[in-house]
Amino acid sequence: MILAKLALGAVGTLAFVTVYTFREGTIRVDVDEHRPGGSHVHFWVPATVVPAALHFVPDDKLQEASDLAHEALPIVKIVAAELEKYPDADFVQVDSEKEHVRISVHGGKVYIDVKDSGDDVHLAVPVATIEDVIENLDSRSKAQ
Amino acid sequence: MTSHFRKYLKSFSIAAAAALLLTPFAASGQTASSNDKWLHVRVVSSDNKGETVRVNIPLELAEKVLPAINKDRLHNGKVTINHNDMEGVDCRALLAALKDTKDGEFVTVQSHDSDVQVAKQGGYMLVHVTEKRWHEAKDAKDSKEAKMTEKSRVEVKVPMKVVEALFSAGKDELDVLAALRALSAHGDTELVSVKDGEQTVRVWLDSKNVAD
User: Fold this and answer.
1) Which residue, A114, A128, A122, is CA-closest to A43?
2) Does the beta carbon of B21 lie under 8 angstroms from any beta carbon of chain A?
3) Domain total of chain B
4) How far is CA A78 from the centre of its chain?
5) What distance in Å separates residue A131's CA from the closest CA in chain B?
6) Average pLDDT for consecutive 10-residue bins of chain A (144 residues)?
7) Partner residues linked to B206 by β-bridges
8) Minimal Cα–Cα distance from B129 to chain A, Å?
């Protein structure tokens, strides 16, 4: 009986942690370089991990990133906040014989897809994660 | 007491899990209203690469982002203009004259290289520019035999209220933000159309979030 309760507790906790971890969806990165020795990178991470991981980045490194993105940060902040109003939209689409570029938002995720003769790059990031990261960078740079 | 607490804890856990699960859907459900206006740009190249570019931007997004961009000549949604850029044309005087003019053809400037027509019609300012291409005749001695073909044709159709908003800032400024606001109050409209031998450009405004 005690074991059953323990198992139930463990399963419940696991379910809770899973739901919490994936509540903002996942970030997906796929990079394929179609040439001999080209790299192939495929990974996905729960979106909630990124803002949490930022807390462990040393202040000086974060300041460096913040300085580099200084001009773009306010713009990205506004765009990210506004994008929540447009959950399904294609913003940019470039198609030619050899290249295909697409920037869109579907289901609250920003998708960037680039395909040319040499490389395939696909990136999917939840809009909420972009907002969290910007907020984090902003507050950390203000605190310093 | 313990069973009450357990029931309470169970209900709370289920409610919390449901709330956490549904949060992203609730956030993504906040869609823009159907009245939102979208600015569309489409560029189709007719060269052998056959490149097509489609850009769709919500006007509201542009209105929010524009004041945040402060670079070069763009500040707080206004562009500083250089008099050299205008090649001696007094746009304000032109606009004032255009405002008081009846509908119909207003100005036609014909030159060797291009024809420019500026007119006011049905609350719109129309600008048509035709660039000419001259082909020399086989017998170059007689220049009258040179033939003219159309190199490119640019058609711009902007609501007068938008043009007025654009020139509503200071003397050396164009208020792009005010123009965007005036544009968002306007109905669906074709704004720019460019056709030449290499590409076709179309800029228009409507309520759809995809290009046709």
Assistant:
1) A122
2) yes
3) 2
4) 17
5) 13
6) 82 77 81 89 88 82 78 87 88 92 93 92 92 83 68
7) B38
8) 27
